[in-house]
Amino acid sequence: MKRLKTAKSILSMMLVLSLLTIAFTSMIYAKTDDTKAYKDAIERDVKKVLINGFSQYYTINNIQVDFHDIKINDISVKADLHVTMNTTLKAKKVEELPYVKGMLKKVNLEDFNYESKAKTDEAVLKANKDKLKKEQLEKVSKEIEFKFNDLKQYINKADDNNFFLTVTADVKDHKIVQDSIKILAENVDTLVPIEELLPKSSEEMEAEGFRDMELALDSQEQNYSPALYASYDRIAARDYANKWSTNPTACYDHGTTCGIKQARNTWNNNTYPYYTELCHNDCADFVSQSLHAGGIPMDSTWKRGTPANTTLAWVNTGSLKSYMLDKSYWKASNYTSAAAGGVLYTSSSHVVMIVKNDTITRQFSGHTNDRNQVNYSNVSGYQYYILWD
């Protein structure tokens, strides 16, 4: 009898354990299903925002959304994600870009079609002979020549756009409340609403081109020595910055709480060995490397060697800027016109390389954090420098 009771007790306990296991497993699956549903909802919303924002000017070839962190509770969800969107400009020639239309409108060339420098000089003179001085005519031709040569590289070329986003939303009854979704985008060293990284209207971009041509006409001739710029290859500098930067989502050796995303194993360590003296702050070091790859020569004030032989101007953001301005290697530019191979300083003295400006989208590559071809927008306090006249 005792054995029978014992057996019944064991069976009862096994039944209870089975029921608890089933219940626990169901809870796990429910939570997993909620997480997937939340991710799907966030991904749909992010894609919708990007497609609506960019599709007027670009063919959207692909959008890849990678979640690298998601936190969920009963009332909210927060996710960090990296989005790569591959696009191709819809404009089939440079003249179709709104910014360029504005440039040309300022100098009475609304029907201009680029053929050659000689043809440009002829068209500029014909349209502005009695309106502009000789030096202004030369400036106009120079601006048009530079812009058309720069922008033609983006026509009919598929290119990646990278975004680092933080998405938050309210949750109710295991579903995301759709109108509560907020998307913030990393913008070099700050977070801004995703809308600030979306293209402006064609009217706004046309006005930017008009204004930049106006500034070029009104600017006084600068006394820069051509020898300082003759050997600078801004495309080589851009290519270096893109080659030796990545988009990691975790810290390399500081742990996940350091706040700095790096992948030092992808750096150009053979040429520029990592020094512990740099700690994780190598943004100026990386920009110096890129500028040197573009042809700016080292000297006793600006050089990279052993820790004892590396100068402050190479690795310190403030000293780098002072050196480049003192040497007249840099001149001030602005958000709308600074092109690939230029340099961007934030208000916190972070510095990165500008690697793209197709007049609709701007991108940077840099270190601290490691970032590769990431879209950015203008922020009050940002400073832009170029190394060509």
Your description of this structure?
The protein is α+β, with helices and mostly antiparallel strands and about 400 residues long. The protein has 2 domains: about 1-90 and about 155-180, Nuclear Transport Factor 2, Chain: A (Roll), CATH 3.10.450; about 225-389, Alpha-Beta Complex (endopeptidase fold (from Nostoc punctiforme)), CATH 3.90.1720.10. The protein is about 35% helix and about 20% strand. It contains 9 helices and 12 strands. Strand 10 (about 360-365) and strand 11 form a beta hairpin. Helix 2 crosses helix 5 (about 200-220). It is flat. It starts with a helix and ends with a strand. This is Putative amidase domain-containing protein.
Keywords:
alpha+beta; Nuclear Transport Factor 2, Chain: A; endopeptidase fold (from Nostoc punctiforme); six-stranded antiparallel sheet; 9 helices; 37% helix
Layout of helices and strands:
Elements: H1 2-54, E1 58-72, E2 76-89, H2 98-106, H3 117-128, H4 134-151, E3 159-172, E4 175-176, E5 182-187, E6 190-193, H5 202-218, H6 234-243, H7 283-293, H8 312-315, H9 317-326, E7 331-332, E8 343-345, E9 351-357, E10 362-366, E11 371-376, E12 383-386
Antiparallel strand pairs: 1-2, 2-3, 3-4, 3-5, 5-6, 7-12, 8-9, 8-12, 9-10, 10-11
Helix pairs in contact: 2-5, 3-4, 4-5, 6-7
Domain Putative amidase: 231-377
Pfam families: Amidase_6
Protein name: Putative amidase domain-containing protein
